[in-house]
């Protein structure tokens, strides 16, 4: 046997999402849980077998065959859901996942199609996003919780609610009609955006940026833009936003893997072809009279890309954009970023006043970034004890190695 | 060189399902462990399925032990100079198991 190849990072994550998507197509969305269970079991088998024998040449095909056989076994045991059996059995001769084929109006890309099915309008909005992140993007419950600024238990509840609803609805083999696709677009965009943000700002582990998550989000949005339903300004704006952020990736991490603040980034290391692509999308997004949060956020990211040096940043313009953002998409994180802009415009005390004005019940106390900014503002006012207190809280909450390293360095400066 | 049996036990109450990410990390950790100690690992070790039969005083029941808190999930045979050396190898196993180490008596 040839030397088993190394698994690329996040291979399991990618494959589990893709396999659930492919199997759900055969099994029906109502049997989503079965699809997830057999994929989990296939990964378990891979864990045990590959640990001993190494990774097979065709790792993805191996997983697919194992998961498919487990699904067939499960269906035979039940004998009640015979509908899906012929579909799976028909595919049994295949060694790898079936190619993705589609009709003109259908969404050809399987992960994207599934995303639309998951984002069914009868499922509560908050549950849609949680379910999609968990089952299609391969997020763990804890990761979903961090992405949505909520607790593990809450995420679990939302996902169960979404699954129950999908089962009741009996949306087996659902191919949403064009009108439905439009109604679901908002939720789909929210999922793609969260996937991208999670990749940009990893909340645990060693890697400060996960390019693969960001690339997948961009790919999904790009596929969306090529479909009649998704060829709309909101999608163009989201693409622009992602391009502008991706352009700065190389400069955001130093050689030790630590985060480099925008202020200290080497702007010549930015990827200017990403910036140019972003500009093209931004121009297209200006068609029509719809102003979405993605438009505004793309505008903010563009302002940062546009400034030749950090000192040239147009904070007044950025503050205005955040004001707009707070109005059309209220979120404590937007208030936080607005406060940062305020700090550059009118000093740290003005920014602290803004943060103090955020109603207590919406302050995201579990979000480390909140405490990082709070600490920085206190630090700039010379209030080192308060700064240390906030940074310690941030350090307690963060599980990302790069962030911990950054915070430890900042904490040292308060002593 | 003495031979030791490594008996891996796992709690029967399943913990939270690992995420795909965690499983991949575990897979890689185990593979690395096996590579590192390939000269000490005697072929023949394997995982064990979770259900079995128990024969006791002529009576056959489904096993292993439904009421047990931990069950044996796999085993390995390791060649090592002494217990200290065997324990050192066990310590480098990825976490998640209780490992019982027993030296072969050498009757066979």
Description of the molecule:
The complex is a heterodimer of chains A (415) and B (108). Helices cover 66% and strands 1% of the residues of chain A. Chain A is built from 20 helices and two strands. In chain A, helix 7 (141-147) crosses helix 8 (152-169), helix 11 packs antiparallel against helix 13 and helix 14 runs antiparallel to helix 15 (315-328). The radius of gyration of chain A is 23 Å and the shape is globular. The termini of chain A are far apart. Chain B has 108 residues and is of the alpha+beta class. Chain B has helices at residues 20-36, 83-91, and strands spanning 2-11, 41-47, 52-56, 59-63, 70-80, 98-103. In chain B, strand 3 and strand 4 form a beta hairpin. The longest helix of chain B has 17 residues, at 20-36. The model of chain B has no long low-confidence stretch (mean pLDDT 87). Classes of the chains: A mainly alpha (415), B alpha+beta (108). The A-B interface holds A 7, 10-13, 15-16, 40, 43-44, 46-48, 50-52, 54-55, 138-141, 143 and B 16-17, 19-24, 26-28, 30-31, 34, 47, 74.
* Cα separation of the termini of chain A: 58 Å
Percent range of helical residues of chain B: 10-25%
Kindly state the number of beta strands of chain B: 6
Report low-confidence residues of chain B grouped into runs of 5 or more. Answer: none
Shape of chain A: globular
Greatest interface (CB-CB under 8 A), with counts per chain: A-B, 23 and 16 residues
- Coarse shape of chain B: flat
Distance between the termini of chain B: 16 Å
The largest β sheet of chain B comes out as: 4 strands, antiparallel
Summing up helix and strand content along with how strands pair, one would put the structural category of chain A as: mainly alpha
Strand order of the largest sheet of chain A: 1-2
